[in-house]
Amino acid sequence: MFLEGQKTMTDPTGGTPPVSLPRLPCSISQRMDLIYKTEWSEDLDWDQVSVLAQHVDAYFAPAGAKIFEQDGQGHCLCILVEGEVDVSMTDSSGTKKNLSAIETGKPFGEMSLIDGEPRSATAVAKVDSKVLTLTQDEFRALSEEDPKLGSILLFKLAELMSHRLRQTSGMLVEYLES
Fold first, then answer.
1. At 38, which CATH number?
2. Poorest-pLDDT segment among 65-74, 90-99, 108-117, 167-176
3. Reading across the β-sheet that carries 76-82, which strands appear in turn?
4. In a domain, 16, yes or no
5. Cβ–Cβ under 8 Å, residues 149 and 51
6. DSSP-based three-state secondary structure for 14
7. Of residues 172 and 5, which shows the higher confidence score?
């Protein structure tokens, strides 16, 4: 549980924290419980969930908090374990466009985990939420420690990105036809 006055996380490598939110103090066991609330646990055995739990951190995002911002530096994937997150983009005229509502158990921000490029959208907690993060550095370390798990997660990311690209392509076709 989030404790009032809890400090935000500092990256143990001395780099930029993955998100500017208060860190939830969680044991490996508690992080495993959080992972089991997500679709990411469906294809993993207990040992793999345990390894993944050693490489993620948990954060509290109060309602209205920006988890990350469009054009901000990104280097992590987020997995929503409790709550709801709205994802939006601002177009060239400065108009905010809502893209999607992320529900409990779903990942978001995956492109930055893969390419480390600036964020393409803004993610804001719609209600008080809990988020797990997996940074590029931790993903690399996990993949070296357990190559099979790294492959499973990479395949899950590819499936997710393919699904979202198909959705976007469908929306683009509708837009072009009108």
1. 2.60.120.10
2. 167-176
3. 57-61, 129-135, 76-82, 107-108
4. no
5. yes
6. coil
7. 172
